[in-house]
Design brief:
Mean pLDDT: 84
Bound molecules: zinc ion
Strand order of the largest sheet: 1-3-2
Order of helices and strands: HHHEEEHHHHHHHHH
Length: 262
């Protein structure tokens, strides 16, 4: 009887945490709840802020936040985040990341790579998409399953660097868990949609990947770790461009013109 109770409790808690499908319709199992992973993201971000010099220049901050706010204004965030925090870090590495809990970090080193407003919007859209699609929770859940059902919350506690890597703070914590091809592809599709809805020309996403491609071995951590070749992702983005262009035209018709300038 007691076992039955435990089993049914387990079943109930699993069914609460299970998410039937990703934003693009992939079926998956999530063993970490939004409040849990939001806290992990917020804690990691606090740590990163303590360890990394923050760019206080008004020019960079106004520019980055202008783009971020335009993107954030069009997303549908159902992860329980009240407001997003955007920080520009004084770091020459070409990196940008978003963490669960509504956190966006942009290194000054990405500005010479994402050369235009639209290109930086493509980067931020892609990173925010990883968060909204709960890719971090999915990665932790996969790892948890591989570890023979070790409790997700147990694994996540204690500033575990593998968990930090899973939620997307890998570059800062020394463990980079690569986003899989399916996650990259999903983040590309969603990111393209966000930037278009925000009024950024979606074809700039392809220019961004051309620049990334030209960087060779010195690509940003998150980008470097991914499986799809630059050609594959540019091909996919090209395929999605007609749909994104419709959203872009609609956005422009509604008067959306972010006009952010560095
Ligand atoms: Zn990615």
């Amino acid at each position: 009887m007691r076992y039955l109770k435990i089993i049914s409790l387990l079943f109930i808690s699993l069914s609460i945490l299970t998410c039937a499908s990703s934003p693009t319709g992939r079926s998956r199992v999530l063993l970490v709840s939004d409040p849990e992973i939001n806290k992990m993201g917020a804690d990691a971000f606090k740590d990163i802020k303590a360890k990394t010099p923050i760019e206080s220049g008004a020019r960079e901050n106004t520019y980055v936040k202008c783009i971020a706010n335009a993107i954030l204004a069009v997303i549908e965030d159902d992860t329980g985040v009240q407001s997003w925090e955007v920080v520009v870090f004084k770091d020459n590495s070409a990196n940008a990341f978003a963490l669960p809990g509504g956190k966006i970090g942009v290194h000054t080193g990405i500005l010479p790579v994402a050369k235009t407003t639209g290109q930086l919007a493509a980067v931020m859209g892609h990173e925010v998409a990883h968060v909204l699609a709960r890719h971090g929770a999915e990665r932790i859940s996969d790892a948890t399953i591989m570890n023979k059902g070790m409790g997700a919350v147990g694994a996540a506690s204690g500033n575990n660097s593998a968990v930090m890597g899973a939620i997307g703070a890998g570059a800062q914590f020394g463990v980079m868990l690569p986003f899989s091809r399916k996650h990259e592809s999903e983040a590309d599709i969603l990111g393209l949609e966000y930037m278009a809805k925000a009024g950024f020309d979606p074809k700039e996403s392809i220019d961004l990947w051309k620049n990334m491609s030209a960087m060779g071995g010195s690509k940003p951590m998150e980008i470097m770790s991914t499986h799809p070749s630059d050609e594959t992702r540019m091909k996919q983005l090209n395929e999605k461009l007609p749909d994104a262009n419709k959203l872009y035209e609609e956005a422009k018709a509604k008067g959306k013109n972010p006009g952010c300038k560095l």
